[in-house]
Amino acid sequence: MPVIQGSSFMRFHGIAVSGAGSMPGTDTNSLLNSAQMIQRRPAPLSANETFAYTSSLKQFGNKLKEAANSLLPSAAASVTKLLSGASSNSGAASVNVTNQRDAERFANSGNNKNLSIERLATGQTNSGDRLAASGINGAAAGRNTFVVEQNGKSHSFTVDIRATDSNRTAQQKTADAINSRGIGVRAAVEYDSATQRSALIITSKETGERNAFDIRDTGGTLAAALGADKKTSEAEDARYSVDGKSYSSEKNTVDLGDGLSATLRKASSEEIKISTKKDTAAFTNAMYDLINNFNQMRETAEKYSKDRGAQSLLQRLDTIASSYGGTLRGIGVTKNKDGYLEIDTKKLQASVENGSAERAMGGDSYGFAQRVSQLASSVDQNPDRFVSYQSRNNNNRVTDDNQYMTFINNYRNQRLMLASALFGASME
Questions:
Q1: What is the domain range of residue 178?
Q2: Could you say which DSSP state residue 209 is in?
Q3: pTM of this structure
Q4: Residue-wise pLDDT tens digits, 57-107
Q5: Rounded distance, CA 130 to CA 194, Å?
Q6: How far apart are CA 426 and CA 2, in angstroms?
């Protein structure tokens, strides 16, 4: 390439043009300035890119708004108001909130409930004899019929046993016949590989006295031969008391009133104190939703950052994250080297439990959740605000690098006379 001496020059995609020299009737400086402006102007998004970007803004704008609003006390769906049940002995009984409004009234009353559990609700089990699995002496060959009676209904079954059927085969045929009808009991064959013995086990599908059942032969001796008619555990209702008043239930999940229910897990002679507390699990999940959606919005803005609107959105997201950096770090949320937010699970959980995470979100004041909510609402309501005019009106504009290079090459060819006339100009 020839060396240019004694004059300044500029290079535009392979064209070196000096600032000296002129061509009659041509405003060289104007041409150079125009070329500079074209080169420096950010390339707008193509029509397809604009559509994809705008669609992502609508999607993540709404999701981020909802996630941020869930952490604001004034929001209708705020998790800061949610309560969960508390038990002084969760091994014996766990507590759930079934109605938030009733539970809130109960919590505001300052009262507790005292629960005692006498026994759990159980289902019935019939455990058959453990027979030699490969033996054939358990059930007589031929057509066998029996009935299962439960809840006032009688269900008849027929099982054909061959002379060569092993005990295990007879047991499995019986189990398959029972299970095929979909009644209130289930059957299975248990096999012990160490002893090579098997047994037919029949259980009620539901707990409680109402679900007790009887099995008896009506033709042949199959049920008796397999021991399927032997009750090994009774179906019983749960018995418990709340604040000294006794109750029974066929299920182990019981209604305690005041928007609370309990799942009875084991009998307990000691009284279990039932109360409410803030639903920390819901708050933790809401925090994860907020951070995940914040990062998705940032990823969208970064992906389309050649657009000025996306650049503006990216800057605003980063400004919010940086402004609350110290507060977020205190609850286990940090900004990584790529600008995305990361969560220290243990630290966040601890901050949720001690209430510092809720305080860090700022409540309804101008805190992190509020700032994010305002930005997300703006994106959700008017996504075009974060798409540049050039991208939204790009039909007659240069939209990608290939078209831009075509434009420059055409510009170069059309200005060969200018390039040759300029003093010291050179072309590569």
A1: 125-233
A2: G
A3: 0.67
A4: 999 999 999 999 999 988 888 898 899 999 999 999 999 999 999 999 999
A5: 13
A6: 7
